[in-house]
User: What shape does this take?
Amino acid sequence: MSKLAVFGGHKEVTTRLTEFNSIGAEEISAVTKVLKSGRLSGFVGSNEYGFLGGQFVREFESAWASFFNVKHAISLNSWTSGLTAIVAALGVEPGDEVIVPTWTMCASASAVLHSFAIPVFVDINEEDFNISLASIDAAITPRTKAIMVVDIFGQSADIWGVLELAKKHQLKVITDSAQSIGALHHSQFVGTLADIGGFSLNYHKHIHTGEGGVVVTNDSSLAERVQLLRNHAEAVVSDRPMSNLSNLVGHNYRMCEIEAAIGICQLSKLSDILKRRYSQVQKLLNGLRDLPGLKIPEINPGNTHVFYIIGMVLDLDKLDIGRSVIVKALRAEGVQGLIEGYINVHMLPMYQKKIAYGGKGFPWNSPVYSGSVEYHEGICPIAERLHKETFVGFKICLFDLNETEIGQITGAFHKVWANLDLLRKEG
Ligand SMILES: *Cc1c(COP(=O)(O)O)cnc(C)c1O
Assistant: This one.
């Protein structure tokens, strides 16, 4: 048995893992076309043709709507902008509550605060890291207006379960599918199954435009409100017959023609990218499957998984060793892209201190809010324990692994597992 790298032995992973890069000749030629035209944006912030952007933005949106089989696809400069516009478009009032899983990127929740509403954090399932139905049920109050479902790491949450709960309580459902673009839930695209949802086109996502986002919905009035919020709503509505003016304080969330041109190419590559990713992950997981005390991701019935992060859980009772010792040994073997734990949004200082807009506790302590939401440690025990003790993620989104690299990574895991006794003593 060879000596662990953490004790001075040879590394199993000998190179920098191949970086994922989906940008190629198609994007270069599309961008060149935009640049040669000189028209880098077609947007105008008034009630005329340019309100909905230029040629490439329009083409991008129609390609997107047809691919995802939705009535409306709305491009934005980021998915954070998309989420912020969605919460406002839904008519969430200051002081309303929106339920959000704590195990997500912070923007899922800050989108709620941007409407001066209150994020109510709920726990996740240990098995798939997605929002827990029982936790949602327990968190609903008379102030609850919407549920934000995040399809985390690459597969759908139990969206049908959430929709049923939402119907019972007359709540809106938003899906944040930034990490799960192209994944299916009972043959339908994740992101398109709720009232409104969408995707990120940030550099780290499966397909990207550098920065960008897309809102998708079949609800035409919501779509119009998102389009308005994207583009100076308050000015545009002066020339439109809008009866509901609430929350139409506009932004500039518009996408450039360059990003739109890139996005059209990227969308056409999505299926191939997902197939390639899936086959790499299957090989990787086959190599990790037999390691005792390491739980690899399960794909829920009815789901396909697009693997943004490979989420694994250590059985600490079985392993009898701390996560940090194992991860340190794996990193010493040259394994890149590992994360210990993931985000618990409720533990961020902004929520712990309840300081958001201004320094006096707005919106939590303002008269518009009649509830008393708690953010203290302990409110999301599953997410908290996963984060602090048992969760190990592999950021597959960063890499385009070849066979050699997959072999080296699984070799590193096997080497560490074969030396657990030694690590228990000396780690
Ligand atoms: C990336 C991400 C976002 C934010 O998307 P941006 O386009 O970077 O603004 C929101 N939610 C989740 C779950 C994400 O992974």
User: Anything to note?
Assistant: The mean pLDDT is 97. Residues 78-80, 104-105, 107-108, 150, 176, 178-179, 200, 202, 213 surround pyridoxal-5'-phosphate (CB under 6 Å).
